[in-house]
Amino acid sequence: MVTWNVATVDPPDDLTSLLHLNDPEGPDLYVIGLQEVFSGPLRFASDTIFDDPWSQVFMSTLAPLNYVKVSSVRLQGLLLLFFCKLEHLPFIRDIQATYTRTGLYGYWGNKGGVSVRLSFYGHMLCFLNCHLAAHMNYASERVDEFEYIMDKLVFDGEKAPKIADHKLVFWFGDLNFRIQDHGMHFVRSCIEEQNYSLLWSKDQV
To answer: What positions does the domain Inositol polyphosphate-related phosphatase occupy (predicted)?
Structure first.
């Protein structure tokens, strides 16, 4: 899985490091969640007709390695791509992609969640890429958005209609939870020295 807030920039030409393409085995699946993909009016209109530049570069990189794009879903700047090795394709069923807006009371797609769910060798999996409210003092709003997505994001049919009905849920993205009250220097030194216990009490998650 990859999660990356790309801050409206275009994709790099070389994704070798990001996707660990030098691994001779290669993963069975690639699930790529991006946030803040550029979605200006002209670009977004173009992307609804043609694949956006990020999707294009991932497809052109992975297709020669026998990966197939199984599904994708986009909500303005949120993008989720699901690739699998060709050999696994016959064992994927019940693919659905959907999204839930949380930005500006659900009317604007600048924040929210995009999801792909499927049956993989009989196991129901759900992948959810989210971008929640930013800024230090919006921790409770982030929790509200998490609960809103859990409640409102629904799939068609009786087989695992809700997020929590799946055997495995992978929830990732730019969740924007922060470590309060500590400066960046202190946080970095704790991480470098692996003194994580000093950070837990101030971790909004």
So the answer is: 2-203
User: What residue spans of the chain are helical by DSSP H?
Assistant: 16-19, 41-49, 53-62, 139-152, 184-192, 197-200
Task: Read off the pLDDT of residues 134-180 as tens digits, 9 standing for 90 and up.
Answer: 999 999 999 999 999 999 999 998 999 999 999 999 999 999 999 99
Same domain flag for 88 and 118: yes
Distance of alpha carbon 114 from the chain centroid: 7
| Tens-digit pLDDT profile for residues 53-100 | 999 999 999 999 999 999 999 999 999 999 999 999 999 999 999 999
* Residues 93 and 190 placed together within one structural domain of the fold: no
Assess whether 123 and 187 both reside in one domain: no
* Same structural domain, 130 and 191: no
Task: State which residues form the domain around 24.
Answer: 2-174
126 CA to centre of own chain: 11
Residue 56 has a CB neighbour count (10 Å cut-off) of 12
Q: Using an 8 Å Cβ cutoff, are 34 and 54 in contact?
A: yes
